[in-house]
Write a structure and sequence with these properties.
With 266 residues, this protein is α+β, with helices and mostly antiparallel strands. The chain is 38% helix and 17% strand. α4 runs antiparallel to α7, α4 packs antiparallel against α10 and α7 runs antiparallel to α9. The chain is globular and about 55 Å long. The model has no long low-confidence stretch (mean pLDDT 94). It binds adenosine-5'-diphosphate (ADP). The site of adenosine-5'-diphosphate has 19 residues, from β1, β3 and β6.
């Protein structure tokens, strides 16, 4: 029930601020014997009633490669969302700060971890909607977990949610999302192709010197991101498969997981 989901804020000890995001500040905290991350939802940043209903669904979405939502404190303002704590922080920052020090096994392992989480979401008919390296986190044992799944649905900032908005993640979005807001597991697959490119460039910004408008035009003309120097040809072929114009021509996450796992063995 929603009651068991509600954490007593008295049991939560706030330790230090570790970041800030779309919804507000993120703190490291302690809850029972567990290190946790506490997202403090800034007033007006989230459609809270809708989130509270969806939280019932989100607590059932659980997988070792997804950042687990542990509970919520909805009776206070700002509202708290409490997640498992990820020592390594955000994946894109991790990649940037470890440039030149990441082995081929590590890079492939990161993609494999994300594909496991996404194959699970796909089989649960749950669409992420904002998959990118910035929305993945690194654990103490260096596995990568997917965070913020489905959360853009509760963001109240138009600049972020409208494809015309200045904060909309055009560079991670499939063409049908940009043009018609048509989200699906196949649009998540497109974003996953961009995420693999981020991993193999050690955290570079895709289409670095291009504006959103230019990216749209280039994509329509059939242009795609180039092969990262560190990426094997077989991996670049997977990326290009993810970036097929028609959603139906892209692989499923089940297939991507299988392909990545088979590359890990050789
Ligand atoms: P929002 O969902 O509000 O946009 P983010 O998920 O982008 O917030 O989090 C902002 C920052 O807070 C991240 O870049 C990361 O450094 C830190 N952070 C978020 N969640 C966790 C977590 N579970 N464990 C550790 N650090 C986290």
């Amino acid at each position: 029930s929603s009651e068991t989901w509600e954490l007593d804020p008295e049991e939560l000890e706030l330790v230090k601020e570790v970041g800030s995001g779309q919804f507000g500040l993120v703190w490291q905290g302690q809850w029972q014997d567990m290190k946790v991350a506490v997202k403090m939802v800034r007033e007006g940043a989230m459609s809270e009633e809708e989130f509270k209903e969806e939280a019932q669904v989100m607590k059932k979405v659980s997988h070792p490669k997804l950042v687990q939502l542990l509970g919520v404190c909805t009776r206070r303002s700002p509202m708290y969302l409490v997640f498992e704590y990820m020592e390594g922080g955000c994946l894109v920052e991790y990649l940037r700060s470890h440039r030149g020090a990441l082995s081929q096994d590590m890079l492939l392992g990161m993609c494999l971890d994300v594909s496991e989480a996404m194959a699970y979401l796909e089989s649960s008919n749950f669409i992420h909607r904002d998959l990118a390296a910035r929305n993945c986190l690194v654990s103490k044992d260096l596995s990568v977990k997917v965070s913020d799944f489905g959360m853009t649905r509760f963001v109240l900032d138009d600049q972020y949610t409208s494809s015309q908005g200045t904060k909309f993640p055009i560079k991670w979005s499939a063409p049908e999302v940009i043009k018609f807001s048509r989200f699906s597991s196949k649009s998540d697959v497109w974003s996953f192709g961009i995420l693999m490119w981020e991993v193999y460039t050690e955290g570079r910004l895709p289409y670095e010197n291009r504006t959103n408008q230019e990216v749209l035009e280039d994509l329509s003309a059939g242009m795609r991101l180039l092969k990262p120097r560190l990426a094997p040809e077989s991996l670049y072929q997977l990326m290009q498969w993810c970036w097929k114009e028609k959603p139906g021509d892209r692989p499923s996450f089940a297939v991507l997981l299988h392909e990545l796992a088979s590359m890990m063995e050789v």
